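> example.struct
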């Protein structure tokens, strides 16, 4: 099984698709709902569509018929089972066969056969003895050229040149002449052609084919095995056109050798295809040539398929082309995650729009919506409707609709699935050819007797959101093919669920009653004793995963954010982006009485990872109140969060014996756990800015002597109480009031995105870098457009309000009479003002990107413009500090510890 890598570290990504690991597998980025392997001719399984390797490999190799083995079985009059024939031909030793020949077999299989088996098939057994003797030598020797960069690490291995050429040829020639059975005779001829090819006697290989293969006049599997060797010899003689043609014949006629024959053809240019097409005399050959052309150049499959259809609409390889085409479309319609670009966000329908187009076909191509133009009369009608009746859809404060009509829900352009061209393995020529392919399958299902085309047509209607049409086709299909039946069953489930306009309580009951197998997770026990079978990287995306995404998307569009979030995430994941509105929605679901069975078993099960849930929510709410400087409100929340179990992190361990082991993180008594162990240095100021340094190196305490209630070690409730007291003192008019306001300002700055203790109020365990501390993510109220999948990859935290800390600093500056203190306060204000600039800079529009040929000069001009703006609007406190306090010792010390400030002062 192919694997994909799950990163244990959380990285911040924003509106761009990025593969953190170069080994990421594009074939794990869609759900493969239309099972490619249902094609009947399994010899073409390697030619199904995938992008991680040249050939498709997600199938059981035993499904591909072994032409050579089946020929042997027929030779033995089907007396042997498949397993016995495989044992005899491929596994049994020469010694066992010689024992049979001498009449003293010891091998259980040979003992089981009749005593006359050797007498009846002595020529075949003698051939197998000779073939087993030759087989270890049957490879071509590697010859290094002057331009070679490949080092042959196994130069001493056996190859054809290890045998005595003349003796081997003489022996095979004698055995050929002695053989009476034409099939056995041709097999010796095959060995003669192969041996000459592998010893690089290419002319002799060509002669051997004419002398030993053609006269037998059998064109079964052995003939094409020999033709394969002939083509190899022709390639060695640079007879490339003849070699390609013969490899083409092998490709057509050998079911078990198509990959190798295709590679050997070396169809690297148009001329190669043209030569094959010119030599194609039969419709079958022409059809196969078109298939190869379509396989190599897959940007426009329909035109090639039309040519193949004209030749034979029942062709098996036409079905292979169709399933590859469907698979390519599916990758854009059903990715494992829908990425939203900035452009898509800007053109997207907002959640507070009243309606979108009711034409379901309009939403398949793009989430763009044209501006609605209303007539004068329509405007009057709408005015009175809004005046007296209100909109049909009741909206919440953030614009999400909780009471939308079925038409509004169904026509939402963000309703998955839809065409979403984001995958990195498509080029600019890739088109959405869904309509053309649907029309093609429509006409082909009328011509072909294979139910495959009906299934394909139904699936394409599913992608087009024509669920009724898709279901009607599926219900009319009559088949006994087990693979077809399984695909039909799955598609009926898909149509039912995806066509549902709204997921309400009744439909949730229906999901649990009829489709629980897709939603209730089954415990899978892994054999950790065999580490070779250990699944390091997780499972491939499944139908159940797709349906989970669909349900999550429906909840999201319905305004049920909490349920949407919990379909794809654990409650503990809120720690990475503790956004207040989302947390509130998740809490509302948590406290919802009378949950349906679906809500209890499928959604609520993701809430068991944080310990005390009430304390978890209250801690988040308290943190937000602190960031808003609402200390009294924060206290009320923290009083309910005293039983907080700690930020829910896990430790990952891996051993050879047990594999991966995940255990909850246990905090030490002195460790910050999200609630306890906050030092008094949180009220101090920076000595220098270094998040990685120890706190006593980066931070310096203020004079706390006038505030004995400030503890050296606090929990968040202590901190809130301390701030409340400081706030009361700060209402005074003396130096103590000035200091109290300064300390509050310090606390707010130090816990902002710029501060050493920036982790305290954003549910983080330390201040190490991550997406929470990126300014560029603060301009979107909600960066999610479809659902909350990959929640940890985007910043979703309300931005800091630096005016709050500046406000307290202004009070301190006004009340203080100490010039040195004023200088310090002004510097802190200037630092907070820089935070305001960084927020502005992150949101500033930029109408060019790296693809712009003038990117460098445009970026320089933009940076110059931003620098001018920063000097004009965001350095007021630096300027005041320079003008009025440049002579203070504080200013001189700051110039020594802050290079940026020193530069500004100069």
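> example.seq
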């Amino acid at each position: 099984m192919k694997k994909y890598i799950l990163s244990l570290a959380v990285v911040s990504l924003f509106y761009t698709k990025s593969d953190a690991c170069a080994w990421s597998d594009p074939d794990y980025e869609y759900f493969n709902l239309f099972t490619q392997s249902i094609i009947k001719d399994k010899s073409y399984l390697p030619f199904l569509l995938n992008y991680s390797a040249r050939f498709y490999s997600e199938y059981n190799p035993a499904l591909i018929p072994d032409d050579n083995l089946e020929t042997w079985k027929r030779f033995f009059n089907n007396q042997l089972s498949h397993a016995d024939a495989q044992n005899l031909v491929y596994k049994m030793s020469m010694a066992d066969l010689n024992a049979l020949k001498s009449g003293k077999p010891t091998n259980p299989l040979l003992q089981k056969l009749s005593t006359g088996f050797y007498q009846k098939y002595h020529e075949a057994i003698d051939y197998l003895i000779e073939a087993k003797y030759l087989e270890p030598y049957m490879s071509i020797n590697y010859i290094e050229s002057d331009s070679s960069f490949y080092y042959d690490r196994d130069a001493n291995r056996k190859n054809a040149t290890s045998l005595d050429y003349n003796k081997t040829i003489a022996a095979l020639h004698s055995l050929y002449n002695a053989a009476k059975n034409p099939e056995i005779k041709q097999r010796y001829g095959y060995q003669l052609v192969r041996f000459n090819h592998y010893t690089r006697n290419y002319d002799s290989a060509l002669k051997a084919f004419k002398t030993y293969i053609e006269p037998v006049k059998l064109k079964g599997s052995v003939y094409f095995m020999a033709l394969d060797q002939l083509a190899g010899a022709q390639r060695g003689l640079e007879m490339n056109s003849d070699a390609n043609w013969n490899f083409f014949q092998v490709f057509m006629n050998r079911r078990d050798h198509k990959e190798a024959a295709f590679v050997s053809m070396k169809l690297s240019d148009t001329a190669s295809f043209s030569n094959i097409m010119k030599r194609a005399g039969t419709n079958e050959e022409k059809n196969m040539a078109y298939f190869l052309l379509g396989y190599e150049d897959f940007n426009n499959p329909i035109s090639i398929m039309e040519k193949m259809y004209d030749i034979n609409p029942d062709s098996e390889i036409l079905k292979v082309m169709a399933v590859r085409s469907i698979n390519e479309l599916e990758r854009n319609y059903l990715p494992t995650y829908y990425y939203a670009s900035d452009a898509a966000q800007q053109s997207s329908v907002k959640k507070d729009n009243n309606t979108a187009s009711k034409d379901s076909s309009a939403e398949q191509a793009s989430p763009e919506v044209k501006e609605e133009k209303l007539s004068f009369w329509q405007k009057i009608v709408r005015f009175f409707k809004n005046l007296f009746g209100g909109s049909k859809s009741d909206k919440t404060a953030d614009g999400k609709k909780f009471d939308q009509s079925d038409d509004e829900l169904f026509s939402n352009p963000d309703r998955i699935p839809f065409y979403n061209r984001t995958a990195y393995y498509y080029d600019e020529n890739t088109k959405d050819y869904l309509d053309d392919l649907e029309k093609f399958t429509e006409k082909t299902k009328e011509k072909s007797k294979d139910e495959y085309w009906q299934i394909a047509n139904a699936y394409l209607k599913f992608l087009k959101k024509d669920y009724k049409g898709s279901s009607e086709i599926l219900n009319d299909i009559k088949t006994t093919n087990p693979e077809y039946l399984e695909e039909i069953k799955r598609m009926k489930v898909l149509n039912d669920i995806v066509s549902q306009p709204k997921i309400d309580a009744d439909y949730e009951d229906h999901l649990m009653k009829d489709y629980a197998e897709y939603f209730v997770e089954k415990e899978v026990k892994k054999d950790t004793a065999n580490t070779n079978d250990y699944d390091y990287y997780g499972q491939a995306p499944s139908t159940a995963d797709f349906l989970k995404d669909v349900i999550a998307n429906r909840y999201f569009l319905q305004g049920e954010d909490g349920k949407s979030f919990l379909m794809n995430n654990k409650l503990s994941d809120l720690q990475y982006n503790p956004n207040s509105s989302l947390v509130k929605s998740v809490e509302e679901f948590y406290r919802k009485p009378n949950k349906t069975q679906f809500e209890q078993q499928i959604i609520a099960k993701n809430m068991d990872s944080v310990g005390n849930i009430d304390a978890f929510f209250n801690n988040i709410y308290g943190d937000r109140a602190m960031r808003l400087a609402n200390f009294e409100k924060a206290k009320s929340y923290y009083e309910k969060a005293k039983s907080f179990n700690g930020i829910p992190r896990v430790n990952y361990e891996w051993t050879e014996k047990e594999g991966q082991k995940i255990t909850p993180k246990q905090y030490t008594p002195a460790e910050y756990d999200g609630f306890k162990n906050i030092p008094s240095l949180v009220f101090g100021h920076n000595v220098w800015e270094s998040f990685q340094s120890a706190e006593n190196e980066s931070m310096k305490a203020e004079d706390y002597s006038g505030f004995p209630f400030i503890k050296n070690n606090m929990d968040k409730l202590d901190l809130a109480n301390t701030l409340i007291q400081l706030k009361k003192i700060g209402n005074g008019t003396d130096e103590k009031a000035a200091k109290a306001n300064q300390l509050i300002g310090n606390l707010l700055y130090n816990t902002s995105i710029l501060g050493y203790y920036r982790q305290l109020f954003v549910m983080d365990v330390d201040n190490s870098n991550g997406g929470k501390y990126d300014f560029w993510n603060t301009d979107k109220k909600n960066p999610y457009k479809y659902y909350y999948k990959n929640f940890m990859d985007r910043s979703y935290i309300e931005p800091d309000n630096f005016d709050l800390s500046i406000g307290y600093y202004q009070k301190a500056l006004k009340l203080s009479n100490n010039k040195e203190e004023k200088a310090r306060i002004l510097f802190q204000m200037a630092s907070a003002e820089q935070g305001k600039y960084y927020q502005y800079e992150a949101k500033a529009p930029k109408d060019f990107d790296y693809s712009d040929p003038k990117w460098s000069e445009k970026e320089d001009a933009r940076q110059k413009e931003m620098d001018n703006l920063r000097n004009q609007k965001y350095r007021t406190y630096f300027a005041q500090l320079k003008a009025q306090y440049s002579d203070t010792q504080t200013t001189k010390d700051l110039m020594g510890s802050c290079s940026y400030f020193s530069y500004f002062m100069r």
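> remarks
The longest strand covers residues 650-655.
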